[in-house]
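Thread: quick sanity check before group meeting

JM: Hey all, I'm pulling together slides for Thursday and realized we never actually wrote out the predicted structure for the chain we discussed last week. Dropping the sequence here so it's in one place. If anyone has concerns about the input, flag it before I start.
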Amino acid sequence: MQPTPLRAVGYRRVSSQEQTEGHSLDAQTNHIQTFVQSQGWNLVHLYTDAGISAKKGSHRPAFEQMLRDARKGSFDVVVVDKIDRFYRHLSGLLTTLDQFNSMGVSLASVQEKLDFTTPWGKLMLTVLGMLAEIYIDNLRQETKKGHRQRARRGLWIGEIPYGYCNGLCAACTDPNGEGYCPNYGKANLGDGKHMIAHPIESIGVRLAFEWYAAGDISMTEIARKITGYTITLPDGTPACLRQKGHQNHNGQGAFSKDVVRGMLQRFAYVGKIAYVGFDDAGKYRSRQPPQEIFDGQHPALVSQELFDQAQEVRTALGNNSVRKRDKPVRCYPLTGILRCGFCGANMRGVSCNGRYFSYQDGGNLDAIHRCRQGLVRQELIEDAFASTLQAIVNQADEQGAVKSSHQQFLLAEQRFKRAQELYLAGEIDRPQYEKEREIYESRENHLPQEMLCATMALLSVMRLNLPRWAEILPIEKKRLLRMVLEGAWVRENALVAVQPTVAFLPILAAANSTGMGLSNCGEGGIRTHGGD
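JM (edit): ok, ran it. Output follows.
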């Protein structure tokens, strides 16, 4: 009696869409069919995953269906052309083999000529699986190095962002190319390796930054305003702004708040390349803060000054909306700065019937605790800040600020030397010493140059804006106060202490030396006459 031939299935896989257009799948099919015939088995089905990786965690629909069919007892043996077509990760390979064994299913490889049901076959399976895993790990490392090298060279990584294109106008495939871009089908303006400014989209980028940096319009409103916004090209042709869209994701059309937010955070628009690196699983961290920033080989669409202004507005607004339910939301410039002088809780802006506006102890507001601090009228405390800062600016001068900046550096140097002595004497531990060293080195590198420039720039901004305090927008007041103060403390309605920013500290110290009557309150802290 003839034995019943085994029911065999074949599994084919290629790792990229380009390979599906070649002969790789056909070659695997021929090898599998020939092998099955030579063994006298019946080929009952072919499973195919095209353009899908076999690394750990990848989703392979055909592979998963094959496992489900194996549990049903639909076949006896799986035939693959090579082991790396089946799995590139050792633990996954061995786990799947163990599952097959429990189901009474065998695995055979054509190229390796191995029967993995025998002891020697299992040994070879382990070796081959390990080699496949080493390969994918090496490939991942090479990919990481390649990404960072491209960033160092100033070349863009990934999909070209809105506002740019590759410059291959004669054979343009950009979503906002044919029927939209005035350069479509004309002579190439780039080499395809370097990004160039898209003639229409780049204008949209600049408008988004200019509108947002003004501080009186939200990202949602910008998305509505920019969608369909009509611009006039240099040749007089009108064009309506639209989103670029993403291939196989969403097409051209309306902007959204998320798209606008992404635009406002892109370093690419100031001619930079942000390298964000990879996570532990080897995945590119596209939405994470950059690890390094390099000069790009593409043109900037907005100035560094405009980009910084937009980031200042984002920081100043924090989680506060510009509008809520299509109604303007009141901005409280001291939110995030003002604290209770009794319990230290943050003071938050509140309103009563939309007519009376104050700052309230956050602990009282959230019913976390009961503090004696009452409501602080918004206009009174903000005007008090403006008057105090104006008096400081009137007393300060550039020469005094420079002298004070130098003194701050000398104090930092003395503090570090003292920390060295205490560490050698065993009175402080290594972490404390390292912290003091980092503070000193930071000031050593930045205080004499960059911080002095920042101080001079801040003094100029304060002289320009404080005299017209009543006229400037609340968001502008908030931006100015955040450049000046890290924190401020009130008791009842009296300002009792402030913590200046590093840039403002030399100005404050210079004014103090002229007789402002402010005394130190901790390192860099200033106690005012209102304190008790």
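AS: nice. Residues 7-145 form a domain with the Rossmann fold fold (CATH 3.40.50.1390). The mean pLDDT is 79.
JM: adding both to the slides.
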